[in-house]
Amino acid sequence: MNRVTIAPGIELGGPDLVLVAGPCVIESEAHTLRMAAGIAEVARALGLPYVFKSSFDKANRSSIAAYRGPGLEEGLRILARVKAELGLAVTTDVHESWQCAPVAEVVDILQIPAFLCRQTDLLVAAARTGRPVTVKKGQFVAPEDMAQVVRKLSESGAVGVALMERGSSFGYHNLVVDMRGLVTMRGLGVPVLFDGTHSVQLPSAGGEQSGGDRRLVPPLVRAAAAVGIDGLFLEVHDCPDQALCDGPNQLALDDLAPLLATVKRIREAVTHG
Fold first, then answer.
1. Is a pLDDT exceeding 80 seen at residue 243?
2. What are phi and psi of 115, to 5 degrees?
3. Which domains does the chain have, with CATH numbers?
4. Is beta strand 89-93 parallel, antiparallel or unpaired with respect to 50-53?
5. pLDDT of 3-51, one tens digit each?
6. I want to staple 211 with a disulfide (CB 3.0 to 4.6 A). Which of 7, 133, 205, 254 is the partner?
């Protein structure tokens, strides 16, 4: 498997499980810094390499009235502060090709949203930044078809590629996680992460917003760890019911440490027998 170096001491595909986590969207500068520090403390206590993630813009909301975030310029300023003041690696998602270059000046790894995983121009632009790229598998894409995504990135000069599972469309307003997909995508020779929070999302189930059931996050995460993953992606919030985006499927900060402790034990058991 090709390993992906995100930052010094943080490597996908290596012996350590990498945690990528943060609130769905940047809600405020103070909240972002508080969440980054809180999650980092949990990760540090468990010895897990950590990358902070939050979006500067949620461009694919159900409703035009939904909160999207502070925008590119302000969002990158806040992420740069997280990186500088807390010493954390950071990532965020990009939605348009022109965003890749300025985002790459701040983040350590770029993220491609699931809905956009087949957008060739976006993938090429991300690959050419000189930053590694992680791509969420589209809800409409078979795991084996992500081979073409890996090829697009690799042939465009990406310095590292990782894939992420986040569930597949199962009828209307529902997703299902086929754990076989983790094995299939790892078989493509790239590290694989599991998105434990978007996998319990109920897309557009609330009419003007997506629903979700965060109670299902722990069992799915435990299952993914048992199958085998290189990283874990979680959207985490101190007050999920008051979150401005994806509240129903975000994990409460207070629930993060016990879940990660369990995941670490499962992964160690799988890895070392």
1. yes
2. -60, -20
3. 4-272 (3.20.20.70)
4. parallel
5. 999 999 999 999 999 999 999 999 999 999 999 999 999 999 999 999 9
6. 205
Chain mean pLDDT for the chain: 94
Tell me the residue length of the chain: 273
Do residues 111 and 99 make contact, with C-beta atoms less than 8 angstroms apart? no
Contacts of 49 (CB under 8 A, 6+ apart): 9, 10, 11, 16, 17, 18, 19, 43
CB within 8 Å of 148: residues ≥ 6 apart: 118
H/E/C letters for each residue in the chain?
A: CCCEEEECCEEECCCCCEEEEECCECCCHHHHHHHHHHHHHHHHHHCCCEEEECECCCCCCCCCCCCCCCCHHHHHHHHHHHHHHHCCEEEEECCCHHHHHHHHCCCCEEEECHHHCCCHHHHHHHHCCCCCEEEECCCCCCHHHHHHHHHHHHHCCCCCEEEEECCEECCCCCEECCCHHHHHHHCCCCCEEEECCHHHEECCCCCCCCEECHHHHHHHHHHHHHHCCCEEEEEEECCHHHCCCCHHHCEEHHHHHHHHHHHHHHHHHHHHC
Q: What's the token pair of residue 83? A: 């990186």
By the 8 A CB rule, do 181 and 145 touch? no
**Phi and psi of 233, rounded to 5°?**
-105, 125
Q: Which pLDDT score, from 0 to 100, does residue 55 have?
A: 97
Longest dimension (CA), the chain: 50
Rounded distance between C-alpha atoms, residue 162 and residue 213, angstroms? 26
Q: Is there a contact between 18 and 231 (Cβ–Cβ < 8 Å)? A: yes
